[in-house]
Amino acid sequence: MCGPPANAREVLSLKRLELRTQIEPMYRQIDRTRSAADLRMAVVVSRYHAEVTGALRDGAVSAFLEADGEESRLLVIPAPGAFELVSIGAELARQGGFDAIVTLGCVITGETPHDQYICSAVAGGLAQITVETGVPIAFGVLTCQTMGQARNRAGGRQGNKGEEAMVAAIEAAGAIRQVRELSAGAGKPERSRV
């Protein structure tokens, strides 16, 4: 705009702009963390479609170690299939001692809607456990139409979803830890400068 404001709307707009640049934001922002240095994590991995789930597991373990996690602080538990991820994940979350849990599996569409029931039950069950216990559970269950699609997501062209699930779990565990510290008054995050 050149010259004085033409109407009240422009004046108000200019005042809001001035106000935004002069006032420090009032919100706080939790820092994003990708360090697993002091985290205790569990990975529950389905044995069904082992070629794919083994690659997902390897990606998750690699991501944990690359984030400075210690091998002694990582527990890997096999599960018979994707459906059992829920009961094993629930027990791990209830026992305590884990900052987050990563669940890995592979469900392939078949001739019947069986895959839809399994995927829905697993996703809902894991979400419920997270809400009830406060322990984040990362969903690394591939839901693909073909084995080719699954391989592409287990270290192929589409990356490794096991690795991505571990990164999400590390970030969620870090955020929850910061929220708990903030609630306890132990550490107050710096105000965000936007």
What's this model, at a glance?
The protein has 194 residues and is an alpha/beta fold.
Please give a handful of descriptors for the protein shown.
Rossmann fold; four-stranded parallel sheet; alpha/beta; 6 helices
What are the SSEs and their pairings?
Blueprint: H1 8-22, E1 41-46, H2 50-66, E2 74-79, H3 84-95, E3 100-108, H4 114-133, E4 137-144, H5 147-152, E5 154-156, E6 159-160, H6 161-184
Parallel strand pairs: 1-2, 1-3, 3-4
Antiparallel strand pairs: 5-6
Helix pairs in contact: 2-6, 3-4
Can you describe this structure?
The protein has one domain: Rossmann fold. Strand 5 and strand 6 (159-160) form a beta hairpin. The chain is built from 6 helices and 6 strands, in the order H-E-H-E-H-E-H-E-H-E-E-H. The strands form 2 sheets. Strands 2-1-3-4 form a 4-stranded parallel β-sheet, sandwiched between helices. The protein has a two-stranded antiparallel ribbon with strand order 5-6. Helix 2 crosses helix 6 and helix 3 runs parallel beside helix 4 (114-133). The longest helix has 24 residues, at 161-184. The chain has 194 residues and is α/β, with parallel strands linked by helices. 33% of the residues are buried. It has helices spanning 8-22, 50-66, 84-95, 114-133, 147-152, 161-184, and strands at residues 41-46, 74-79, 100-108, 137-144, 154-156, 159-160.
